[in-house]
TrEMBL record:
<feature type="region of interest" description="Disordered">
    <location>
        <begin position="1"/>
        <end position="21"/>
    </location>
</feature>
<feature type="compositionally biased region" description="Basic and acidic residues">
    <location>
        <begin position="9"/>
        <end position="21"/>
    </location>
</feature>
<feature type="region of interest" description="Disordered">
    <location>
        <begin position="181"/>
        <end position="217"/>
    </location>
</feature>
<dbReference type="InterPro" id="IPR026367">
    <property type="entry name" value="FxsC_C"/>
</dbReference>
<protein>
    <recommendedName>
        <fullName>FxsC C-terminal domain-containing protein</fullName>
    </recommendedName>
</protein>
Amino acid sequence: MQITIAAPTRHDLPDGRNSDYYGDHPQDWNPYHPAAARPLAYVAEELVRSLNYQARITSFDEESGRPEGKAPPSTPEILLVDRWALQDEDRRRRLAAFDAENRPWVTMVVPWSREDHQSRAAEAELTEKLEATMPAKMRHGRTFCRAAARGVPTMEAFGQILPQVVEVAAQQYLKHATAYPPVTGGGHGERTRLTGPMGSTSYTPDPHDPATEAEDL
């Protein structure tokens, strides 16, 4: 399971953005600071491994140069997006191009702390920009996937919803990976498999959130 972080570093923040939530690398992003002590990528990695999956952390800036497009997926993926990352126009264009590709094995989660007053003040503007940039990830998928893309307000909610979006990514990966024949070799390859029993927690989206009102796709 690949965990990809789309976030700025403290060295390339939008003007005026508080640097307390960031580090030297995108993987250092900690949206739930100060309530959470560790960067979110490593919290997610621990949760994914607790579900009996292997996990690999990377950044969107590193990965966006690797076109996958219609090629068979190499791994299921969780994309953690900081809305502030869209203030960089080059990164915003790359996220838009990523969204335009059909990658249902990638599920998006948008951590968005209700205690981050600066983010709350800019929420309407940044939400509109994310919806315009990544409409497919914002509107498609199961109800809880759409809710995760609209904003996860606390670390507790993140810990509850992540197992659900991990399971969706894994299911979609198996569905699409097995649709492609082996590229090389003459023998019969073993069917792609993933392990990872679901946890017992569940996340209930806000019933008044527009993301929960549409029918599941």
